[in-house]
Amino acid sequence: MANEQPADEPAPSDDAHVSPLLEPLLAVHSAQTPNWLADAASTAAERGLGALYGLVFATDASGHLSGVRPASSERVRALAKLRQALAVDLTALRFDPQERPAVLSALQGGHALTLAELSQALPLPQEAETLRAAQERLGIAEVWLAPLYWDGQSLGLLLLLMPEHAPAPLADAELLGRHIAVALGNLREEEEGRKRGELDAIRWVYDERRFMEQLALEIRRAERHRRPLSVLVLRVVNLDALRIRYGRFLAERVLRQVAGRLADAMRDTDFLGAFGHDGLATILVEADQEGAQKAEERLLASLSSLELPYADLPDLDVDLVCATATLPEDGTKPDELMVAVEARLGRGTAEDNVA
Description:
Blueprint: H1 15-30, H2 34-49, E1 53-59, E2 65-67, H3 73-78, H4 80-86, E3 94-95, H5 101-109, E4 113-115, H6 128-138, E5 142-150, E6 153-162, H7 170-194, H8 208-225, E7 229-236, H9 239-246, H10 248-265, E8 271-275, E9 279-285, H11 289-301, E10 318-327, H12 334-347, E11 352-354
Antiparallel strand pairs: 1-2, 1-6, 2-3, 4-5, 5-6, 7-9, 7-10, 8-9, 10-11
Helix pairs in contact: 1-2, 1-7, 2-7, 9-10
């Protein structure tokens, strides 16, 4: 299976088509497990696209597609009619997309496509005529396939069973597939983050406890050798607003991107860690007040071209505020320095806005 990003990114729908998806997309990005994501994806497909059924198939390590069973008993009951009519539980299917040309085409091409029959997409036990009759009884006029692409990788497939005269365009299936892919990718990243020991699972930098331990060590070292030392803290001011409007996974991905940019822009001697629920802190070794100011300018410049996931969403921007504190002018203990820098953050305004 091809894992390369399609040459042409699917174009987003216009606002008139996007708006019915906005509310159900919040649940997609807030799902805490793949099963709850499958649940939220089905709801979004039905409410936002007018689908009769929506199912998520995730790509496993061998490249096969496996159905993801929804978490809620209500959603499982809703699939019972489908299971009875087709004589198979679609959420229990696992198959090789290489054996389904239409599925392979959607995965490799990166665009949603329409099929007339469900048997073209899935390996089903019934004969073709029996399946056609079952589709007719269920009111399924078309089968839509939307690939789940995230960071250049194929994570799976969204399968939509659509009625005649579907109220939404096929492009909206691509849009929904893109959001589901981001949520699924973030769930996998979060699981990997939990395995990284003392690293913050969201930001992928050292956690706050480890940062404060390192700050105490660097303060002792600076005082012993009579060398300057500063700390810098950067906050995503509107992180809570992003989480409320777009869901926690998109907000966390923004925070992780900010952390990655800071890590790339730092000197090798500096130390980056998480601070609070919306911030990052850096120990600036050998930096006095002037050096800290220059570091602040350099780090903010590194964020001037921040690329946000799904920037086609309306009103999606990031407000950043940054401040520094220096040893010994602002304190001689870790807590004193952090209190000083937080006071400056509280007095400041957003110093940069990245759209």
